[in-house]
Amino acid sequence: MPIATVNPANGETLKTYEAMGEEEVERRLQLAEATFRTYRTTGFAERARLLNRAADLLEEDERDAGRMLTTEMGKPVKQARAEVLKCAKAMRWYAANAEALLADEEPAETDVKDSGASRVRVRYRPLGPVLAVMPWNFPLWQVIRFAAPALMAGNVGLLKHASNVPQTALYLEDLFHRAGYPEGCFQTLLIGSAQVDDVLRDERVKAATLTGSEPAGRAVASTAGEMIKKTVLELGGSDPYVVMPSADLDRAAEVAVTARVQNNGQSCIAAKRFIVHTDVYDAFAEKFVAGMKALKVGDPMDEETDVGPLASERGRDDLEELVDDAVRSGATALCGGHRLRRPELPGWYFPPTVLSGITREMRIHREEAFGPVATLYRAGDLDEAVLIANDSPFGLSSNVWTRDESEIDRFVRDLEAGSVYVNGMTASHPAFPFGGVKRSGYGRELSGHGIREFCNITTVWHGA
Q: Name one GO molecular function term (predicted).
């Protein structure tokens, strides 16, 4: 895949970049290692000052940065600007909280005495250069939620971004440079996927984090395992959205539309499988389909657009194949179902789609639909709802709509997911851990859990 900005709204190639050669990659690895030796010794106050300055600059760039995201991957510009501001918020959160999150810990005095020590501390120390392999769907947010905690912990970052968002990748390096970070603290590696393995094998790279496809995760995890390096993986999801009879149906249906089509439906934590109790299935389906039909599909630069194009032609084609397979196998398209063919929208558009009659044999039951396509399931009772929800290789997040406390307890206990959102849609927040189970990956981003992922957790023991 070429490293290029291709506007998804019209298919026009705007700018193409040459991949960095071996000499330039080597220069950047040397710089990362050298910078880490000194940056690791900076205090939290200095790290916070730098990160807050980067947040200031990001907020100043809100409109231009938002348009850049929309141009490169097609999200509605309103959502792009919201992503920019969300990144600044997360940076400020880590600037304010990292010192407390990484403060030395003192074990219980009885355990200290039992060990024969006069004092024991647990200290969090940085690891070194961390490689981040990041996706295109949230081009700023995915990177910042790695970079902010990594930099506050005293690590330095190496970014291999998706090949279709090179301007965003270069912007991020420039952002940290303008904020005053020492050269080498955060660098973009403008390289293709085939070069990732060599970088990860380099002894100067101490750990890696990846958000992306399952095959990409397997490749990184395999190499990291061979080299015995720490990794965090977030590999997508097919999140269930369960609606029970006691739910506020109007609100559940309204939120369901947003939960499915946010970011043009290209979100790992978007609700994708809508599992509805049979007693309210028909009423919910009617409201949900009406909401999906009412969405405005169009130019992502238009402030009124709800759904823009998919980020790539291949992504649009892959989504269409999933829908076609389901319909051929007996599913019914309650709305949408075919790519848009409108002269005024020449890009890679796919309309909001709702499919019913899904069976286990259909590919869309097992695979992640990365676009504005929802699948509807009818559940006879709570037990069946849980079975359908867990009948997926993924386990990133989940959504449950019910006013029954016993049902809430049951879902929280039994759903196989990294998060359970009750009467609301999944969203990431810097204060809360984010990640999944099963093929959605392992490890956690954000919160104190995320910042400690790339730390050397060191026991310091003092003799009596």
A: succinate-semialdehyde dehydrogenase (NAD+) activity
Judge whether 327 and 364 are in contact, CB under 8 Å: no
**Average pLDDT for the chain:** 98
CA atoms within 13 A on the CB side of 402: 23
Q: Which of 85, 83, 80 is nearest to 70 (CA)?
A: 80
Q: What are phi and psi of 458, to 5 degrees?
A: -110, 125
Give catalytic status of residue 384 as yes or no: no
Residue 375 falls inside a structural domain: yes
Same domain, yes or no: 127 and 185: yes
Is 434 within a domain?
Answer: no
Tell me: do 405 and 264 sit in the same domain: yes
Report the predicted TM-score, pTM, of the whole model to 2 decimal places: 0.97
> How many domains would you assign to the chain?
2
Give the list of residues 6+ apart from residue 304 with CB closer than 8 angstroms, or none: 296, 298
**321 and 211, same structural domain?**
no
Question: Is 435 part of a structural domain of the chain?
Answer: no
User: Which member of 234, 367, 445, 453 is catalytic?
Assistant: 234
Q: Verify whether residue 335 is a known catalytic residue.
A: no
Q: Which of 268, 335, 453, 455 is catalytic?
A: 268
Q: Are residues 289 and 421 in the same domain?
A: yes
CB–CB of 308/74 below 8 Å?
yes
Q: Which domain holds residue 293?
A: 239-429
337: left (phi over 0), alpha (psi -120 to 50) or beta: left
**Cα–Cα distance measured from residue 315 to residue 244, given in angstroms and rounded to the nearest whole number:** 33
Q: pLDDT (tens digit, 9 = 90+) per residue, 362-419?
A: 999 999 999 999 999 999 999 999 999 999 999 999 999 999 999 999 999 999 999 9
CA distances from 15 to 2, 6, 68, 75 (A): 10, 7, 12, 19
CA 7-10-14 angle, to 5 degrees, is 40
Q: Are residues 228 and 251 in the same domain?
A: no
Of residues 440 and 464, more confidently modeled: 440
CATH number (domain holding residue 224): 3.40.605.10
Tens-place pLDDT, residues 285-332: 999 999 999 999 999 999 999 999 999 999 999 999 999 999 999 999
